[in-house]
From TrEMBL, chain A:
It comes from Flavobacterium swingsii. This is 3-oxoacyl-ACP synthase.
From TrEMBL, chain B:
GO terms for molecular function: 3-oxoacyl-[acyl-carrier-protein] synthase activity. Gene3D superfamilies: 3.40.47.10. Keywords: Transferase. Belongs to the thiolase-like superfamily. Beta-ketoacyl-ACP synthases family. It comes from Flavobacterium swingsii. PANTHER family: 3-OXOACYL-[ACYL-CARRIER-PROTEIN] SYNTHASE, MITOCHONDRIAL (PTHR11712:SF336), POLYKETIDE SYNTHASE-RELATED (PTHR11712). It holds the Pfam family ketoacyl-synt. This is 3-oxoacyl-[acyl-carrier-protein] synthase-1. GO terms for biological process: fatty acid biosynthetic process. Residues 2-376 form the Ketosynthase family 3 (KS3) domain.
Length: 205, 378
């Protein structure tokens, strides 16, 4: 069934205070902390979406990368059938640890629903779905390291079985200031072939 | 030609039984695992469905002398062990391993050591289980809030269709923990009585813990049921509440129906999510009505097990498959008077009924939904 080729339309990487789009640097900052870097990036790209500041770091990271790939892709006048398939290593542990700290000390016990909701890795998918009104296939996976074989197979089967017209997929990892986002848009047409080796190369760039 | 995909083995470890037959016996007798607890996990008494530690350790000691596994790992290994054994599969590179959980070993975070922190990683949990069974392929973890367990069935089917694997062992599990109890309590989402899905006086969830396991295979031999369609579509509406119109669930079921090439009116039985929160149950009733499914017999199994998070979708699939195999429908425990604005056909007494098409659904935080359609094997 997998005879039809698929293609990578665009890709975006965010790491070390730098954002690259299709291999070219589009934003850099000398910020010390992700909170500061992500705010500067938000301002630089004129993203007008105040909910951004309520998100946890994993959601901010995924949201920024998705924003840069989808802002010219989404046609607001119609339904956009773009699946979201993300993976990482640390799940939502960055927020899990913060939430755990709010319940560990019984003298200082203040569990908050606004923090608890982000103790699920797929919340970042929800945030992107809401922003771009993507009523589409979505799922979040956890691996020890970026698994190009799985990602390629899963994106392809979604396209081949017509569960989605395009798939936005990739890696969104955040734990305690260590982060990396590598997202790419897979479609039935394009120039760059979508396969395991090319994905691997782009991830490692 | 897209491959046909089947479920050939099932098992579950729950507070009301350590195998499928015992679970079914207890469900038929109306026995629930939900009890009142008062302990250090929450600053007030709470209802939850939990597994007895002594029984768990006793059962685990029969299959392994190792002391190196957490509670959740023991529950997962116990769920998988008879399936792996019965399958007699050569565990080669065409045999996948998929683990579904929302919080895994989250209790490890209460211990500040670095070693304990590492064990809170979900891929570490999956690796510990994979090593026990000596699976050869890289474990895949699906962690997509409360749809994880049923989404795992959908993912397994798709990976077999992609020809990455011929068969996949799927295990799903979550524990009742201080972390999750305090979080649901902070949302004021906990019921002050054992949960009452779809009832007028429902006030929220009772949490539960369990593991379930299945073998998903392209081979029809020993097939218990066929997976004929699926969908997992986001509401794109709110991160901590369902869409008022049930949009994502509606579309997930539509997607599953389209793939299966059957009509909604052919569905014989729905095992729904039914967490007993006011918003969830109402949303499901609306989505089912939009698809004209209001007369199809429906139950929520949360009255027996509580909400077992990442385990629930797979556990409820395992019980649903048994309903189809035994031509029975089980009471939606905890239901009294209809408490949703649209009519739905809640199962009020155990009954004999032949079902050809069975639908399993779930919805969760992040706006996620999943629907999987199954067909009785002839």
């Amino acid at each position: 069934m997998l005879e039809n080729k698929t293609y990578i339309e665009t890709f975006c990487t965010i790491q070390n205070n730098e954002i690259t789009l299709n291999g070219e640097t589009i934003f850099k900052s000398d910020s010390d902390l992700f909170a500061d870097f992500s705010k500067k990036a938000y301002q630089n790209f004129d993203i007008n979406y105040p909910k951004f500041f309520k998100m946890d770091n994993l959601s901010k990271l995924a949201f920024l990368a998705a924003e840069l790939l989808l802002k010219n892709e989404i046609d607001e006048s119609k339904e956009n059938d773009i699946a979201l398939v993300f993976a990482n290593k640390s799940s939502s542990l960055d927020t899990d640890v913060k939430y755990q700290n709010s319940i560990s000390d019984k003298e200082n016990y203040f569990p908050s629903p606004a923090v608890f909701v982000y103790t699920l890795p797929n919340i970042c998918i929800g945030e992107i779905s809401i922003k771009h009104q993507l009523k589409s296939e979505n799922s979040f996976f956890i691996f020890d390291a970026f698994n190009s074989e799985f990602m390629t197979n899963y994106a392809e089967v979604l396209l081949h079985t017509k569960k989605a017209e395009k798939v936005l997929c990739g890696w969104v990892e955040y734990y305690n200031e260590e982060y990396k986002a590598f997202l790419y848009l897979v479609a039935n047409e394009g120039k760059t072939e979508h396969n395991k080796q090319i994905i691997e190369n782009l991830y490692n760039k | 030609m897209v491959k046909e995909v089947f479920i050939t083995e099932t098992n579950c470890i729950t507070p009301i039984g350590f195998d499928v037959a015992t679970n079914i016996q207890n469900i038929e007798s109306g026995i629930s695992g939900i009890q009142l607890h008062q302990n250090a996990m929450l600053n007030k008494p709470f209802y939850a469905s939990t597994i007895n530690n002594e029984e768990l350790n006793l059962a685990f000691a029969k299959i392994s002398p190792s002391e190196n596994f957490t509670r959740l790992e023991k529950m997962m290994i116990l769920a998988l062990q008879p399936i792996v054994e019965n399958s007699k599969l050569d565990l080669n590179n065409k045999v996948g391993f998929l683990l579904s959980t929302t919080k895994g070993n989250i209790t490890a975070l209460a211990n500040p050591s670095e070693e304990s922190f590492q064990s809170a990683h979900l891929h570490q949990l999956a690796k510990n289980i994979a090593n026990f069974f000596e699976f050869k392929t890289e474990p895949i973890v699906v962690s997509n809030a409360c749809v994880s367990g049923i989404l795992a069935v959908s993912v397994a089917k798709r990976l077999i269709q992609s020809e990455m694997f011929d068969s996949i062992f799927v295990v799903a599990g979550d524990e009742v923990s201080e972390f999750v109890l305090s979080g649901f309590n902070s949302f004021q989402a906990m019921s002050d009585l054992p949960c009452k899905p779809y009832s007028k006086n429902r006030t929220g969830v009772s949490l539960g813990e369990a593991t379930a396991a299945v073998l998903v295979s392209s081979s029809k031999e020993n097939a218990k049921i066929k997976i004929i369609g699926d969908g997992a579509i986001n509401d794109a509406n709110h991160i901590s509440g369902p869409s008022r119109t049930g949009e994502g669930l509606f579309r997930s079921i539509e997607s599953a129906l389209a793939e299966a090439k059957i009509n909604a009116n052919q569905i014989d039985y729905i095992s729904a999510h039914g967490t007993a929160t006011p918003f969830n149950d109402e949303m499901e009733a609306i989505a089912f009505n939009r698809l004209e499914l209001e007369n199809v017999p429906v139950n929520s199994l949360k009255g027996y097990y509580g909400h077992t998070l990442g385990a629930s979708g797979l556990l409820e699939t395992v019980i649903g498959i048994q309903s189809v195999l035994e031509s029975k429908l089980f009471v939606s425990l905890g239901f009294d008077e209809i408490g949703v604005s649209q009519p739905i056909n809640i199962i009020k007494e155990n009954q004999d009924k032949n079902s050809n098409y069975f639908l399993k659904t779930a919805s969760g935080f992040g706006g996620c939904n999943t629907a999987v359609l199954f067909e009785k094997v002839k």
